[in-house]
Amino acid sequence: MSLEDLRKKIDDIDSKLVELLNERARVVVKVGKYKDKNGGPIYAPHREKAVLEKISRANTGPLPDKTLTAIWREMMSGSFFLERPLRIAFLGPEGSFSHSAAMLKFGQSVDYEAVADIRTIFNEVSKGHSDLGIVPIENSAGGGIDESLDAFVDSDVYICAEVYMAIHHNLLANCKLEDVKEVYSKPEVFAQCRKWLSDTFTGAKTIAVASSARAAQMAAEKPYTAAIGSTAAADLYGLKIVCENIEDVPNNVTRFLIIGKQDTPPTGDDKTSLLFSTAHKAGALVDVLEVFRDHGLNLANIESRPSKKREWEYYFFVDFVGHKSSEQAQKALEAAKKHCLQLSVLGSYPKNDKLL
Ligand SMILES: O=C(O)C(=O)C[C@]1(C(=O)O)C=C[C@@H](O)C=C1
Predict the structure, then answer these.
(1) What domain range includes position 39?
(2) What is the pTM of this model?
(3) Residues enclosing ligand 1, CB less than 6 A?
(4) What does the record list as GO biological process (predicted)?
């Protein structure tokens, strides 16, 4: 067959695909009307998981799963647009890692709201100014993100989903490496590049700012300064990539949480996040953790933060594998409460959604 014939075939298939996509979209419009009438959140993470799994199972190739997943994520972004355009708050400005994660997860057909700090994301969602927010919670090399953990303590938002994204850091500047006098970034980013920074610079000062994208904006404005950030930030703010992939650990992954005011139903493959505090007495934390062991619930993560109310009193953040609605989880939560000053479930959500 000639190239022209092959391209004619592609054109015919494309026309059929457009028709099929719009046939799906017309059903989505009906789903939107149903939700309007009967209630129910526009974003349905449990259904999204089921759709993406079904697509992978149906895929016999030659397209890789990741291509189809990206297409379907974009299609579901279009679904939001048709049902009710969603507004999603992220740690801005544009070009931050949170922005990349948000766009990979929610696509091109939603509205994004860039805010200046993580607490504002919680406030925007809490007040209903944004439907959802995306917040970094943990990095594979640097550990917990304190600002996000602390914001959960006095917020009424829930966790409705989690996503993991590989993070590559770059030194961005408009001068030579040896001329850099100041380096801007987020404290957590410095922590992820600590070895590289100490091996590379003797004189340059590191200056902490609210986000890596804000750092890039600042480095673009002041001579002989650099930022550590994404390649997207370099493009957006007109900086050169002076050194690539400077993270100390090659598999540098950040876990982000999607926060909202909605609950996510079980999928059979879920995680639950808890926040609790215990009295400052010997064995108090162990008593709580033993409850989960005794109920056969596998703990996936534990973090602590000072309560800031009384010295040496802490808030604990624990994730277990399973959904809060299961009988096993209900019993464990009842029992755990007896050992806590206060315990709240931050949310149950589908486990382990990996972004490309
Ligand atoms: O099933 C729904 O609730 C929908 O809104 C449809 C749909 C889809 O396009 O398949 C869109 C968005 C949701 O997050 C999940 C699924």
Answers:
(1) 3-82
(2) 0.94
(3) 28, 31, 43-44, 47-48, 51, 76, 79, 83
(4) chorismate metabolic process; L-phenylalanine biosynthetic process
